[in-house]
Amino acid sequence: MTDADVSTVKRSLAVPDLSLVVLVGTTGSGKSTFARRHFLPTQVVSSDVCRGLVADDENDQSATPDAFDLLHYIAGKRLAAGRLTVVDATNVQSEARRSLIRLAREHDVLPVAIVLDVPEGECARRNAVRPDRAGMPAHVIPRQRRELRRSLKSLEREGFRKVHILRGSEEVEAAEITTERRYNDLRHLTGPFDIIGDIHGCRSELETLLGKLGYALRRDERGRPVDAAHPEGRTAVFVGDLVDRGPDSPGVLRLVMGMVASGAALCVPGNHENKLGRYLKGRKVQVTHGLAETVEQLEREHTEDPEFGDRVRVFIESLVSHYVLDGGALVVCHAGLPEKYHGRTSGRVRSHALYGDTTGETDEFGLPVRYPWAEDYRGRAAVVYGHTPTPVASWLNNTICLDTGCVFGGRMTALRWPERELVDVPAERIWYEPVKPLTNEAPGGAQGRPLDLGDVQGRRVVETRHMGRIAVKEENAAAALEVMSRFAVDPRLLGYLPPTMAPCATSSEDGYLEHPAEAFAAYRSDGVREVICEEKHMGSRAVALVCRDDTVARKRFDAPDGVSGMVYTRTGRPFFDDPRLTGKILRRLSRAIDSAGLWQELDTDWLLLDAELMPWSLKAEGLLRNQYAAVGAASRAVLPGVLTALENAAARGVEVSGLLGKQRERAVDAAAFTEAYRRYCWPVGDPQRGWPGEEREEPRGRRTVGSRGTDGLDGIRLAPFQILAVQGRSLAALPHDQQLAMIDRMVEAEGLDADANNSICAYVPTYVNRLLAPTRRLVVDTEDDASRAAGVQWWLDLTAAGGEGMVVKPLQGFVRKGDGRLVQPGVKCRGREYLRIIYGPEYTRPENLDRLRVRHLGHKRSLALREYALGLEALDRLADDEPLWRVHEAVFAVLALESEPVDPRL
Predict the structure, then answer these.
(1) Most buried one in 92, 353, 784, 834, CB count within 10 A?
(2) What is the 3-state secondary structure (H, E, C) of 307-360?
(3) Are 625 and 752 part of one and the same domain?
(4) Are 73 and 118 in the same domain?
(5) pLDDT along the chain (906 residues), means of 10
(6) How confident is the model at residue 6, as a pLDDT?
(7) Residue 441 phi/psi, 5° resolution?
(8) Going by C-beta distance under 8 Å and a sequence separation of 6 or more, which residues neighbour residue 831?
(9) How far apart are CA 532 and CA 378, in angstroms?
(10) 3-state helix vs strand vs coil in the chain, percent to 5
(11) Element holding 236 (H helix, E strand)
(12) What is the CATH number of the domain that holds 75?
């Protein structure tokens, strides 16, 4: 190889994928050309460009201070967003570099220096051919060159983690940039993982736990465990504190080191490993907090394996402060890590990952008081850590501490990810007496501190899995906050709000505003072949959270004592003012679910139901009295007299036939209006005697029972039409025919249960009527003429018999169009007579129909899709057992969108 060949050999310059790259070189050294060649234009922040932005002249040196203020601002914004940033400036002065190193440290990224050490003559020649630099004073380049030469040996001492020096134009031309992944960035590893909490030398318990997790141990010739692997390829992740206090720290290290070396495990350092590593390097440390036991055990190990200590030292030095795993959904560290530090690299990040943060105070045991960072955590990634012993591992704001004090006589705990399943084994004995009792110091139990106003205040953007980012306007959030804070049920029991539903496209059929033909055509155009037509019950929307008993509700939802769930409206308000009535409905539902075998089949102790609760008058009595009944009463008071007067006038020979005909039509329409809403109203109790069946104290100590039943639910009908979620999974995507089949079993089981109670168990309440109502339905093929005609006729028969109408949904529970956009989850197709309630008694007249057919449905459809996506997100978060604030974020957004202005008749 010739000298010329040597000079053109490519040189690779490693740059971390998140770092602040500082180009250093005199003017004319080719920094801007180098930056354009190796980095994206958006990654480069140039001092010349910033000078031009503030002064309209890139060579105006008087604008330099403002230009660098702008440069630092832009670079800081990029680093805060996690973007690789390159600073294109001379940076030959230590003061200029110092401010950039400080900027990198503020954002916990690595500063990297790339020096272009180009000869002075070459720089001068390049500047001479540039019109904007031709008049540069002769002393500038020599001065910058001297400053550069003085800086070369001090760059690493200044704080640059990597320094690349390119000497001469040939090396600059031959350089290549290689972007390297940060050591803590393992997002490409998706597991599944078994994350194991603090071990503290408890080797025997670790072996037991690994066995319970399904790992097969490999032992050396002396029978000591030196590796373990899972037959299904799972990866163990250790959160640190492998050593100290326990009986066999060398045995734990041998096993964990073997698993890491074989690729069966990952490990982050704990503060005890950090201290042991410093001891092994000969640093002066206090041999306290269990280190003395580990040192003694290592000394015994040294007699048999003199190199073991060196291997431990190298292993500890290789450990990375934390790992970001599973596409960014999981962060593992020792002492916990706020979101702003995830994936970052600095001494501050490492210190927090090892030791956590303290308030500066000490408790009564002389130990530092830990800052409760997890109470304020709002990150998307789950943070799994250890360090602070707690009696029970529990989720707190999407974080969980797995140190359950095995060495202190507690348990050793692991978390299966992504299953979020906890697996633990008891300690064999108390190996080390704790300084303080094990307590869970998080306020509010497993749910953490109460919801924060900042979670919902102001303009919000909610990330959803099915529709991306959904914005909530500030004024809508304020309206929702008013409702939620004053009227809503306990947020712990409010895991979902149903979305609004758009009507089908306006019909052109004579006499109809809505017609099934438009619904079938719309779904056919969206590529949906099979739809299900569900009877639309005329009542009030109700969501029911049903737990097997109040113990389940207390354990899973942190419900108050004696509460086994909740029944609430579509705006989150309690459906009934009397909690006893709510309890009766929940008990009836739980019994029906149990009799149908759904608790076992769905492997759950709770479920969430979407339903209609009837009669309409049960919840809408005020609306009926003030709005609808008033119209009917006015027509009955006025129209008979009008008709009598006109008929008398006609009898006297006055020509009023046209007017009389119109008034008779108005009377018919008014009667039809009254009949339309009355069919959805019926009494549910005797106001003089309370709820039917409810025992009341009577004079002389007698107790009587209401005349029509025994549990106070007579006349109330609940029609569930979807099981939304159960323990561990959302069922929102389950096909609707399967959903309704399970609900049919509940309805049937309630009847069987009631009959059995009547005939066998006299002391069990019997029912005059059944609470649960079935939902009739019909599947329609949108591409088959006969099937569509059958669907239309089914709707006509349903509405002719007094039904409200139907809801048309894709048979599959969750459908996207060919372009990936969501299909409307359902459209309502309301009957001709029912719409009289909505649009007024005379809406069917041709002139009124023509006017009403001009309906703007775009906003309503958009609103329905956004609320649907938020509802799905809430159900996913609820099923995944995410923290309350995460579930409530999506629920609150649905309520906020409901305050967007839209035609209420749609």
Answers:
(1) 353
(2) CHHHHHHHHHHHCCCEEEEHHHCEEEECCCCCHHHCCCCCHHHHHHHHHCCEEE
(3) yes
(4) yes
(5) 54 94 92 94 94 88 91 96 95 92 95 94 85 74 90 91 92 93 95 96 96 96 95 96 95 96 96 94 87 92 90 95 96 94 93 82 62 82 92 84 94 94 94 73 46 79 87 90 88 93 91 93 94 91 94 90 93 90 91 94 95 80 66 75 79 81 79 76 56 42 42 81 93 94 92 46 43 92 95 93 92 89 94 86 86 89 94 91 84 92 85
(6) 45
(7) -90, 0
(8) 795, 798, 799, 803, 804, 805
(9) 40
(10) 40, 20, 40
(11) strand 235-238
(12) 3.40.50.300
The residue type found at 687 is: P
Asked if 331 and 324 count as a contact pair (C-beta separation under 8 A), the reply is yes
User: 704 is in which domain, residue-wise?
Assistant: 617-759
Alpha-carbon distance of 293 to 281, in angstroms, equals 18
How many whole angstroms separate alpha carbon 477 and alpha carbon 461?
11
Helix axes 291-304, 271-280, angle to 10 degrees: 50
Asked if residue 545 belongs to a domain, the reply is: no
> Are 667 and 648 contained in the same domain?
yes
For residues 691 and 706, is the Cβ–Cβ distance under 8 A? yes
User: CA-CA distance, 1 to 849, in Å (whole number)?
Assistant: 91
- 574, two tokens: 């309690």
Q: Are residues 409 and 302 in the same domain?
A: yes
Strands (E), 584-658: 606-614
Residue 412 neighbours by CB under 8 Å, 6+ apart: 196, 197, 199, 202, 205, 206, 208, 209, 404, 406, 424, 425, 427
Tokens 């601002």 — which residue?
73
Report the Cα 664 to chain-centroid distance in Å. Answer: 59
Tokens of 333: 């560290």
Same domain (yes/no): 137, 176: yes
Token pair of 441 as six digits: 């110091």
**Are 103 and 167 part of one and the same domain?**
yes
* Residue indicated by tokens 């914005």: 471
Bond from prior residue into 904 cis (ω within 30 degrees of 0):
no
Reduce the secondary structure of 797-826 to three states and give it as a string: HHHHCCCCEEEEEECCCCCECCCCCECCCC
What residues are paired with 718 via a beta bridge?
Answer: 613, 772
Give the residue carrying structure tokens 């030791």.
Answer: 355
Q: What phi, psi does 824 have (nearest 5°)? A: -55, 130
Q: Would you state the structure tokens that stand for residue 817, as one six-digit string?
A: 């169009």
- Residue 827 belongs to some domain of the structure: yes
Check if the beta carbon of residue 733 is closer than 8 Å to that of residue 727.
no
CA of residue 788 relative to chain centroid, distance? 39
Last residue of a domain, one of 408, 438, 468: 438
Largest CA distance in the chain: 129
Give dist(CA 583, CA 705) in Å, integer: 19
Query: Does 570 map to a domain?
Result: no
Q: Which position has the token pair 């649960």? A: 772
Q: How far apart are CA 680 and CA 685, in angstroms?
A: 16
The token pair that represents 739 in the structure block: 């959903």
Residue 167 and residue 326 in contact, taking contact as beta carbons nearer than 8 Å? no
Angstrom distances, CA of residue 882 to CA of 448, 781, 831: 12, 39, 41
Residues 6+ apart with CB under 8 A from 358: 368, 369, 370, 371
Tens of pLDDT, residues 200-213: 999 999 999 999 99
Cα 174 to Cα 603: distance, rounded to the nearest angstrom = 63
Whether the Cβ atoms of residue 75 and residue 59 lie closer than 8 Å to each other: no
CATH code where residue 781 lies: 3.30.1490
Is residue 435 within a helix (H) or strand (E), and if so which, with residue range? Answer: none
pTM of the model: 0.68
Phi/psi class of residue 167: alpha, beta or left (left: φ > 0; alpha: ψ in -120 to 50)?
beta
* Number of independent structural domains in the chain: 5
Q: Are residues 630 and 643 in the same domain?
A: yes
Which of 412, 438, 464 terminates a domain? The answer is 438
User: Does residue 550 sit within a domain?
Assistant: no
Burial tier of 706 (Cβ tally within 10 Å: 0-12, 13-18, 19+): buried
* C-alpha to C-alpha distance for 807 and 500, rounded to whole angstroms: 12
Check which CATH number belongs to the domain holding 406 and give it.
Answer: 3.60.21.10
Q: Which of 277, 203, 239 is closest to 354 using CA atoms?
A: 239
